[in-house]
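Protocol step 4 of 6: record predicted structures for both targets in the notebook before any analysis. Target 1:
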Amino acid sequence: MRFPFLLSAVAATVLLAAGCKSQYDALLSGNDVDAKYEAAFKYFNEGKYRKAAEMFESMSVLVSGTPQDDTVQFYRALSNYRFKDYYTAETNFKSFLDKFPRSPFSENAEFLRVDCLYKSTYRWELDQTPTYAALVAINEYQMKYPGSLHSAVCRRMSEDLEERLDYKAYQNAYLYYKMEDYKAARVALRNVLKDDADNIYREDILYYTALASYKYALMSVTEKQKERYMVFVDDYLNFVGEYPDSSSRCKELEHLYKKAKEKI
């Protein structure tokens, strides 16, 4: 006796859901700007950011050139940002800034675009093209808004991205060392500092440069060892001159230095 009632309840639920969906779709495809505007902010305030973004987008053409235009375009971008669709949001913010450079929303839009670019970067092992793009945008924002409330956040973003690039450069060079290609390792490690003397992994780079030159000399034929041990001595002196307080590494390299002097 209860089975038909359950079927009716399920059917009613399905019909109700279908009715709600069709109501949203009808509003989305309609031309009632006021209803769309109200619904879009309702979805936004309820945290239904995908629906809000779609609704704001659906009225973009309808409000073009009106006082609502920049608000709709900004909240379209912001809805995608809150939905964590950073690629779309960044495109939206860029379009907004191109169209409304003097809008009251402009500074916030520019920062959020920077944040989208930052959030779209990859781990150090992967392509760092997005990292360079994010750094350019961060620098431009900081120059344009030097007193911004977001300045500290921008500095942290920049430091994080710079560290990522430094680490990638260091690891790419260190890979030769791990492969025991010590000649290539020394060249690659020195090139990292040639390109960026302030690399934050400078101590590690100088340390492995010295180790690479020692091991290269050690593996060399006898007639070339003296010359190559002298290269190690230079690398050793460079390291201990810059990092005299790196006790364990200095001690290790000093031990190798004493061995090298016996060969020179």
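Target 2:
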Amino acid sequence: MTDLPSLIPAGTPRWRLPRSARDPHAWHVLAAFAAVGFGVGLTQNGAAGVVQDQVADLGTTVDALGWTMVAYSLGVVVGAPLLMVGLGRMGRRPLLLWMSGTFLVTTVATVLAPTVEALMAIRFLAGLPHGALLGTASFVAMTVMGAERRGRAVAIIMLGLTSSLVVGVPFMQWMSNAAGWRAAYGVVAAVALIAAVGVWAFTPDVPGNPHASPRAELRALRGARLWTAIIATTVGFSGLGAVFSYIVPLLEVSNGLEAGQVTWVLAIWGAAMTAGAYLGGRLTDRSHVGAGRLGLAGAALALAGIGLVGDVPALTIGSLVLLAASMQVFSQSSQVHLMDVMHGSPSLGSALAHAALNAATAVGTGLGAIVIGAGLGYQAPAWVALGLAAVAMVIVVLGPGYRGRGGWRRPAT
């Protein structure tokens, strides 16, 4: 683990910085951040698993609830750059503690939402700390692991997020059916509390940027390479939101699966995302541009499959598995590429990566709500997403910052 200078004066009470955080083991830090990712994955992705029960409880429609998912993603898009630009000088430990606490409070508020309108507003607020939380965690993880293992450091955090899809989201869908969607989000609140304790116990005292200022951070947001990377990430990742946000009605209505069968498909989806996170970390360490192109190609194939045979259960499930793994590879590569582009502000770069990924979710989910609301069915979002993936592929082959790159190299050992 990289040696870190202490910013805490001698004699600071242990509750401010426990011994486990003064001299942390790298894998303890990563475990705490994986718990954060697990909780964030539950609060965001769990919405797709409980949507059918929210329709009945809140007296609304599937496409209306799609906009609550859009609200969460927009919260991430707004909160990630706003918080990282405004709080660039803050030490990374207190920043993570504040964001973990905000995550816990907004999750509890979600449980108590009385109407779909209130839920939409709360989900926007819940999204605000998402990018700053995961972006800062990624930066600290890379600090303790070293630059040569940055892909794997990010992948471990993302494994926490995607592993929530293996057990957490299917469990939420099951609990929502059994006890209501509010009970399911009560579980998310418990996970958020555990994650906050882990952050307090193990996060080392990594300094912020003493020279950071809103003006300096905003200057870092200039340049064709940066905005090409943001656009490519946003456009390319939209397919995941377009399909996953409506995965339950796709499986139940278009494919005729029962609720119990859907639970198992969600677990398979999560396993594919987790495998994609591991593979993406390895491939990204070899070539993040090459990994991004490979991920987009796999996603395009999967989206075409859903559009063509998305009403045949076995083929639908196979296409979903390929989509989940491929999009995760693309996600890993996009985060590292953005941090490379913003080498002077890596925390902001990581936060912007999450903002771009959630802008993609908002775009995909919103377009999905529009085509579903127009009566085109639950396979239609895949065709929209396929067109967006094709545009993204052109960008990552020909765009500034991508041209002439993508050669594979042997990772450092």
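Step 5 preliminary note on target 2. DSSP finds 15 helices and no strands in the chain. Confidence is low (pLDDT under 50) at residues 1-13.
Proceed to step 6 after PI sign-off.
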